[in-house]
Design a protein that fits this description.
Structural class: alpha+beta
CATH architecture of the largest domain: 2-Layer Sandwich
Largest sheet: 9 strands, antiparallel
CATH superfamily of the largest domain: ATP-grasp fold, B domain
Number of strands: 18
Number of helices: 12
Length: 365
Amino acid sequence: MKFSTVGVVGAGQLGRMLALAGYPLGLRCVFLDRGPDAPGAQVARILVGELEDPARLLELAHASDVVTFDWENISSAALAPLEKLVTIRPPRKALEISQDRLREKALFARLKIPVAAHAAVDSKQDLARAAHALGIPGVLKTRRLGYDGKGQFVIREASQIDDAWTAMGGTGLIYEKFQQFSREVSIIGARSAAGKIVYYPLSANTHAGGILHYGIAPFVHPSLERRATRHLKKVMETLSYVGVLTIEFFVVKGRLIANEMAPRVHNSGHWTIDGCVTSQFENHLRAICDLPLGSTRPLGHTAMVNFLGSMPSRERLLGIEGLAFHDYGKEPRPGRKLGHCTIVCATARGRDRALAEALKFVEWT
């Protein structure tokens, strides 16, 4: 089947970048999102409505050859009726697992991918038992709908258990033993329906307040990259995955501890737009549209910096050699991702100097 129109549930910046990557390939995107001013609407047709509105989803399916999503918190059940009309990629099973931290960790454990010690929490008594059994410090998290540091409470001493329960108490929680990590890394790959997989180099990620502040790639650590690639391959093959998949890891005493996966293009992979032969966005489209996957070869040493809450001076940043500026066209507000920049240099030292210079002009609000 020839794919020419890609339906995307969600029209945020990820969807916008998918659409921009699709134009050179002769692919067009059509979006479904709640508002006509979503970033994707700047570059492609948009259907306005709730993301789980059955009528709007059916309209999207009828307008598309394949349906994907830029936000993993849409209900898998809402997408199920569309499968009679259109191909959905990545598979709904991956969506379901990624939406529940407990199911996600169960999958990792079954595939012998190391995870933090953890326990399900549905009552204050469960939390007290988990903290006693697994130890403190630990992190109480919602099992669902947590991203960018949301839905978490770090318990550093036993006296905080009551505070944690007051802040987050309810069913559907998970307690994880806190990981004393030396750094966070992510691995991104794309898998075709025929089973071919391409992998991007590891990215080393620095967060602030649970949100990615900046990343550098390639993060050169052959043994960690081999393990991360092996883990990603296991997940993709087990789920018969099609599209781009990301797994984030903590590095703890030289070991990789899987934190979470994202069944979509990912913030830590934005560096690939300017830093690789084929971006994660293009390879996601290639994979879901049955096109040959592109080379993931890096074009140099790259850094990526998120813009959060307010936009920095475009003029100052563009004065840095090797820097590319990406504005998502979103209305500024505190804590909102508004854009990013990438820096590509011939050497790691040059990249690091340019990154330090760029960070002087980027203020988070």
